Amino acid sequence: MTRPTADDLDAADALAEFRAQFVDGDGVLAYLDGNSLGRPLKVTADHMREFIEHEWGGRLIRGWDERWLDLPTGLGDRLGAAVLGAAPGQTVVADSTSVLIYKLARAALAMRPNRSEIVIDRDNFPTDRYLVEGIAAETGTTIRWIDTDHDGGVTVDLLDEAVSDRTALVLVSHVAYRSGYLLDAPGVTQLIHDRGALLLLDVSHSVGSVPMQLDAWGVDFAAGCSYKYLNGGPGAPAFAYVRQGLVDDVAQPIWGWLGAADPFEMGQGYVPGPGVRRLLSGTPPILGMLPIADMLDLIERAGIDAIRTKSVALTELAITLSESVLRPLGATLASPRDPDRRGGHITVDHPNSRQAVTRLWRQGVIPDFRTPDGVRLGFSPLTTSFDEVERGIEALALALG
Ligand SMILES: *Cc1c(COP(=O)(O)O)cnc(C)c1O
Question: What's the pLDDT tens digit per position in 173-212?
Fold first, then answer.
């Protein structure tokens, strides 16, 4: 049997109709970086204008009481249901991923006062590593670094060696930002809990493309970005999840008035607010939340399982094409071949990667360069066509050659 072509796959794509809902970039031939910054939805431009003219412009300060103050938890609950596998009351939208990871990591350490180590891998996203370095310096905690395979990520076996009765917290990514390795989240959670430690899962590179069951897996804390597969726009606010059983014990270090029990009492002395709201610090970024709500409408219609099915088909096609046209040029796959261990992107290594990506960007073919010599190809299931994958990889072959 011959393999299906990109055209066959596009013709059979159950999610193809969604592509027309997004703004088409001027002169963009292949957008292969939707995992770094998703495209905007067309309807978001209308909704932003309506919001400015009627809600902000019309309701003015009354808007806070009428709707805005509830958006961090309201949108959080929608994220929980659509993509996180989380029941209501455990997720808030706020801050940036970096700030939320800081808050959650400090909260976790405070829950394990007699333990002295944080476990993290050297290939985790830089902000995660730097935050842990800062927290270690601030709290006197020791970092226990894990080394992972270049084309893999953190495994249960690696954690088995690293996590002990000294471990307070493990911080790992659900999908590794470079290799695309997809963590065995239930297995990892089990091992960490067996050792009495807590897990903070960074879901920035999986949310909106890989289905999650945070509640069922028993994950303690999670945080992630909403400008990648959630198409929230540059600098869109992030989200944080805290497992129900821990919510009322969370003590986070940035004590602002909007995370306090009764913000409008304006009283003396900070008392943390009820439930997951206590993760908030200052005024929520309402404008930045509007595009996330639009994308959630689409994800709810498409269904996260159908999105994952297409995501796997996109990375399979990309791997097949890179074997046939990139490997002969000396490129090697730096991502898992097993689709069950792979997220929504792949990385291909080649010594000419940096120059090739610069050249491709000028032509409107947009992958990402990742040190030391990787070209990262990200596919956003609701916006990327199979034809776009093929065009992108053919252009990459010319640019590398
Ligand atoms: C993109 C990404 C971040 C980004 O954090 P910001 O605070 O939004 O800059 C953090 N962690 C991971 C794993 C990411 O992929």
Answer: 999 999 999 999 999 999 999 999 999 999 999 999 999 9
Angle (CA) 241 19 125, round 5°: 40
Question: What SS3 state is found at 347?
Answer: strand
Residue % of the chain over a pLDDT of 70: 100
Q: Can you tell me whether residue 77 is helix, strand or coil?
A: helix
Cβ(77) – ligand 1 distance below 6 Å: no
**Domain ranges across the chain:** 6-31+303-400, 46-299
pLDDT tens digits for range 360-397: 999 999 999 999 999 999 999 999 999 999 999 999 99
Fold of 46-299: Aspartate Aminotransferase; domain 2 (3.40.640)
Q: How far is the CA of 176 from the centre of ligand 1 (A)?
A: 11
Q: What is the pLDDT of residue 1?
A: 56
Contact 181 CB / ligand 1 (< 6 Å): no
Q: Are 344 and 229 in contact (CB under 8 A)?
A: yes
The one catalytic residue in 102, 125, 177, 241 is 125
Confirm or reject: Cβ of 129 under 6 Å from ligand 1: no
Task: Give the position of tokens 């333990």.
Answer: 115
CATH number for domain 6-31+303-400, candidates 3.90.1150.10, 3.20.20.100, 3.40.50.720, 3.40.50.300 = 3.90.1150.10
